[in-house]
Specification:
The chain is of the alpha/beta class. It is built from three helices and six strands. A six-stranded parallel beta sheet has the order 1-2-3-4-5-6, with helices on one face.
Length: 133
Amino acid sequence: MYGVEGKLKDLTMFNNYILNSNHHRLQHTSVTITQCDLCSEDGLSLLKQLLGCVCLVELDINGIIGKLPQYEHQLLCSSLTTLVLRNSLLKEDPMATLEKLPNLRKLTLFNAFVGKEMVCSANGFPHLKSLTL
Protein backbone atom coordinates (compact mmCIF):
# COMPACT_ATOMS: atom_id res chain seq x y z
CA MET A 1 0.00 0.00 0.00
CA TYR A 2 1.33 3.41 -0.93
CA GLY A 3 0.03 6.92 -0.38
CA VAL A 4 0.91 10.11 -2.25
CA GLU A 5 -0.29 13.42 -0.87
CA GLY A 6 0.09 16.68 -2.72
CA LYS A 7 3.45 16.04 -4.36
CA LEU A 8 3.74 14.96 -7.95
CA LYS A 9 7.42 14.08 -7.40
CA ASP A 10 6.35 11.43 -4.84
CA LEU A 11 4.09 9.85 -7.44
CA THR A 12 6.95 10.01 -9.95
CA MET A 13 9.25 8.18 -7.51
CA PHE A 14 6.57 5.55 -6.82
CA ASN A 15 5.91 5.04 -10.54
CA ASN A 16 9.62 4.58 -11.18
CA TYR A 17 9.85 2.09 -8.32
CA ILE A 18 7.00 -0.15 -9.43
CA LEU A 19 7.92 0.05 -13.11
CA ASN A 20 11.57 -0.84 -12.48
CA SER A 21 11.23 -3.35 -9.65
CA ASN A 22 10.85 -7.10 -9.66
CA HIS A 23 7.10 -7.55 -10.19
CA HIS A 24 7.17 -10.94 -8.49
CA ARG A 25 7.58 -9.11 -5.16
CA LEU A 26 4.79 -6.61 -5.90
CA GLN A 27 1.73 -8.72 -6.45
CA HIS A 28 -0.98 -6.55 -4.89
CA THR A 29 -0.41 -2.82 -4.85
CA SER A 30 -2.85 -0.24 -3.53
CA VAL A 31 -2.24 3.44 -4.21
CA THR A 32 -4.01 6.43 -2.72
CA ILE A 33 -3.29 9.77 -4.39
CA THR A 34 -4.54 12.87 -2.58
CA GLN A 35 -4.57 16.36 -4.10
CA CYS A 36 -1.80 15.81 -6.64
CA ASP A 37 -1.87 17.99 -9.73
CA LEU A 38 -2.81 15.23 -12.15
CA CYS A 39 -4.39 17.65 -14.63
CA SER A 40 -0.96 18.78 -15.88
CA GLU A 41 0.73 17.02 -18.82
CA ASP A 42 3.22 15.44 -16.41
CA GLY A 43 0.39 14.29 -14.14
CA LEU A 44 -1.54 12.75 -17.02
CA SER A 45 1.58 10.97 -18.22
CA LEU A 46 2.20 9.58 -14.72
CA LEU A 47 -1.41 8.44 -14.41
CA LYS A 48 -1.09 6.68 -17.77
CA GLN A 49 2.06 4.90 -16.55
CA LEU A 50 0.37 3.96 -13.28
CA LEU A 51 -2.62 2.49 -15.12
CA GLY A 52 -0.14 0.38 -17.09
CA CYS A 53 1.25 -1.24 -13.95
CA VAL A 54 0.48 -4.96 -13.95
CA CYS A 55 0.63 -5.24 -10.15
CA LEU A 56 -1.85 -2.45 -9.35
CA VAL A 57 -5.01 -3.85 -7.77
CA GLU A 58 -6.56 -0.82 -6.04
CA LEU A 59 -6.34 2.85 -6.99
CA ASP A 60 -7.91 5.71 -5.04
CA ILE A 61 -7.46 9.25 -6.41
CA ASN A 62 -8.76 12.32 -4.60
CA GLY A 63 -8.12 15.44 -6.65
CA ILE A 64 -8.54 17.09 -10.01
CA ILE A 65 -7.47 14.91 -12.90
CA GLY A 66 -8.73 16.99 -15.79
CA LYS A 67 -9.14 13.99 -18.06
CA LEU A 68 -8.39 10.30 -18.12
CA PRO A 69 -5.67 8.93 -20.40
CA GLN A 70 -6.98 7.58 -23.70
CA TYR A 71 -7.57 3.85 -23.83
CA GLU A 72 -4.59 1.90 -25.13
CA HIS A 73 -4.96 -1.87 -24.90
CA GLN A 74 -1.28 -2.56 -24.27
CA LEU A 75 -1.20 -0.04 -21.39
CA LEU A 76 -4.44 -1.05 -19.76
CA CYS A 77 -4.19 -2.12 -16.13
CA SER A 78 -5.46 -5.68 -16.35
CA SER A 79 -5.10 -6.32 -12.60
CA LEU A 80 -7.06 -3.30 -11.35
CA THR A 81 -10.13 -4.47 -9.42
CA THR A 82 -11.04 -1.35 -7.42
CA LEU A 83 -11.04 2.26 -8.59
CA VAL A 84 -12.18 5.29 -6.59
CA LEU A 85 -12.18 8.76 -8.14
CA ARG A 86 -13.05 11.68 -5.86
CA ASN A 87 -13.27 15.35 -6.80
CA SER A 88 -11.76 14.58 -10.21
CA LEU A 89 -14.03 17.09 -12.00
CA LEU A 90 -13.78 15.21 -15.28
CA LYS A 91 -15.44 17.08 -18.14
CA GLU A 92 -15.33 14.19 -20.61
CA ASP A 93 -17.31 10.99 -20.09
CA PRO A 94 -14.94 8.62 -18.23
CA MET A 95 -16.97 5.49 -18.99
CA ALA A 96 -15.48 4.93 -22.46
CA THR A 97 -12.11 4.31 -20.78
CA LEU A 98 -13.20 2.82 -17.46
CA GLU A 99 -15.53 0.20 -18.96
CA LYS A 100 -12.55 -1.36 -20.74
CA LEU A 101 -10.71 -2.20 -17.50
CA PRO A 102 -10.99 -5.98 -17.83
CA ASN A 103 -11.06 -6.98 -14.14
CA LEU A 104 -12.66 -3.93 -12.54
CA ARG A 105 -15.14 -5.10 -9.91
CA LYS A 106 -15.76 -1.94 -7.90
CA LEU A 107 -16.01 1.60 -9.27
CA THR A 108 -16.78 4.59 -7.07
CA LEU A 109 -17.16 8.11 -8.45
CA PHE A 110 -17.66 10.95 -5.94
CA ASN A 111 -17.89 14.38 -7.58
CA ALA A 112 -15.79 12.86 -10.34
CA PHE A 113 -17.75 13.91 -13.42
CA VAL A 114 -19.03 17.41 -14.17
CA GLY A 115 -20.06 16.84 -17.79
CA LYS A 116 -23.59 16.36 -19.07
CA GLU A 117 -23.85 12.66 -19.86
CA MET A 118 -22.17 9.35 -19.06
CA VAL A 119 -22.74 6.37 -21.34
CA CYS A 120 -21.87 2.71 -20.74
CA SER A 121 -21.80 0.33 -23.68
CA ALA A 122 -23.55 -3.04 -23.62
CA ASN A 123 -20.23 -4.93 -23.50
CA GLY A 124 -18.48 -2.65 -21.02
CA PHE A 125 -17.48 -3.54 -17.45
CA PRO A 126 -17.36 -7.31 -17.91
CA HIS A 127 -16.79 -8.03 -14.18
CA LEU A 128 -18.23 -5.00 -12.42
CA LYS A 129 -20.12 -5.88 -9.21
CA SER A 130 -20.45 -2.45 -7.59
CA LEU A 131 -20.95 1.01 -9.07
CA THR A 132 -21.35 4.01 -6.79
CA LEU A 133 -22.09 7.45 -8.23
